[in-house]
Structures are given as structure tokens and as C-alpha cells.
Design brief:
single chain; mainly beta; two-stranded antiparallel sheet
């Protein structure tokens, strides 16, 4: 289970962002794209720990 964060201006050239990475790896989460932002809701982390947080990525 990973928690990599990758950034791209136009979806062509991608760079891994290693400066800000407090996002915990998870699966079984929900996500939605709204107003040019990606929202990630909840999920399950390693050890079957359920989360109820929300992460937002925007540009």
C-alpha cells in the first residue's frame, strides 16, 4: 500500500512530490472530481484501520 504523491501540470511530465507527504496509504476509499479539485474520502489503512478523513488536491 503506497502513499506516493505525484504532480503534473498538464498530465504529460510527472514528478514525485517528496516534500509534503502526510497522506497515509489506503484502499477501499471514495473519490470525486469537483471544480478542478480531487477529493479523497475515508478508506482503510494498513491493519484494517478505518479512516474518516478527507484529502483535497487542487491546482
Amino acid at each position: 500500500m503506497g502513499n506516493d504523491l505525484w504532480i503534473s501540470s498538464f498530465g504529460e511530465n510527472w514528478e514525485e512530490n517528496t516534500l509534503i507527504n502526510s497522506f497515509t496509504g489506503r484502499y477501499d476509499f471514495s473519490s470525486v472530481l469537483f471544480n478542478n479539485k480531487i477529493y479523497i474520502f475515508a478508506g482503510i489503512c494498513e491493519g484494517w484501520i478505518r479512516t474518516n478523513d478527507i484529502w483535497v488536491s487542487y491546482y
